[in-house]
Amino acid sequence: MAAFSVTLPSGELWTPRFVTDLNQEKCIGCARCVRVCAREVLALVGVTEDGDIISIDPDSDEDEEYEKKVMTIAHQENCVGCEACSKVCPKKCYTHAAAEV
């Protein structure tokens, strides 16, 4: 199988690499990635003392329910393969791969 590729107007061949994984152990919850993603692929969540993932209200100041904030892949199907999330991530938490056709 070959990787899905697109020919750009310049004639250059581009292979989008879609988000496949996010290492929450390395994530510091800075949310830089969610700010650059216009496709709502990512979401900020809380991690409890027991390691459970809970949704949080980003506009709320109440931090008692969770130990830390991390990113999660909320809607992987919306990813367009631009890798902007990975480019701004200071901890290099993301893994991307080309789609096979």
Structure description:
Helix content is 10%, strand content 30%. The protein is mainly beta and 101 residues long.
Task: Using brief descriptors, characterize the structure shown.
two-stranded antiparallel sheet, 30% strand, elongated, mainly beta, 101 residues
Helix count, per DSSP?
Answer: 2
Run of helices and strands: EEEHEEEHE
Structural class: mainly beta
Tell me the strand percentage band. 25-35%
State the end-to-end CA separation: 6 Å
Give the CA-based shape.
elongated
Q: Gist?
A:
The protein is built from 2 helices and 7 strands, in the order βββαβββαβ. It has helices at 32-36, 84-88; strands at 6-7, 13-14, 17-22, 42-47, 53-55, 68-73, 94-98. A 3-stranded antiparallel sheet has the order 5-4-6, with no helix packed on it. Strands 1-2 form a two-stranded antiparallel sheet. A two-stranded antiparallel sheet has the order 3-7.
Secondary-structure map:
Layout: E1 6-7, E2 13-14, E3 17-22, H1 32-36, E4 42-47, E5 53-55, E6 68-73, H2 84-88, E7 94-98
Antiparallel strand pairs: 1-2, 3-7, 4-5, 4-6
